[in-house]
C-alpha cells in the first residue's frame, strides 16, 4: 500500500495490480489503521489495479462500513476494466462513489 497524499483532510491509497485473496490479507491492518485516523476523506486509487475478486471487494466494503460510522467518506479513484465491471455488477458504485480525478 502506498500513501500518495496524506493530510488531515484526505489520504490517497494506491492499490496493487491484483487486489485479491492473498494480497488483500496484507491490507487488513492498513485498512484498520485508516479507521483509527482523523482523516475525513479516504480515496482508494485503482489506477494500477487490473483484477479484483470477492476478497478485495469485501475488504473495501468492510472499510466503507467502518469509516461511515465515523462520518468519514470513502471514494474509489480511476476504477476501470475488470474491477469496474465487477463492482458495477455488484452495484458497489451505488454506495461508494467512483471518481475520475482528485
TrEMBL record:
Pfam family, any one: STAS
InterPro entries the record matches: STAS_dom, STAS_dom_sf
Domain of life where this protein originates: Bacteria
STAS domain span: 1-102
Protein name: STAS domain-containing protein
Classification lineage: Bacteria, Pseudomonadati, Pseudomonadota, Gammaproteobacteria, Alteromonadales
Amino acid at each position: 500500500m502506498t500513501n500518495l497524499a496524506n493530510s488531515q483532510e484526505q489520504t490517497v491509497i494506491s492499490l496493487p495490480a491484483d487486489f485479491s485473496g492473498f494480497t488483500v490479507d496484507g491490507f487488513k491492518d492498513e485498512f484498520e489503521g485508516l479507521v483509527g485516523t482523523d482523516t475525513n476523506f479516504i480515496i482508494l486509487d485503482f489506477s494500477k489495479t487490473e483484477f479484483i475478486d470477492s476478497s478485495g471487494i469485501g475488504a473495501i466494503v468492510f472499510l466503507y462500513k467502518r469509516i461511515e460510522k465515523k462520518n468519514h467518506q470513502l471514494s474509489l479513484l480511476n476504477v476501470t476494466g475488470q474491477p469496474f465491471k465487477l463492482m458495477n455488477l455488484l452495484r458497489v458504485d451505488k454506495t461508494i462513489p467512483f471518481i475520475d480525478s482528485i
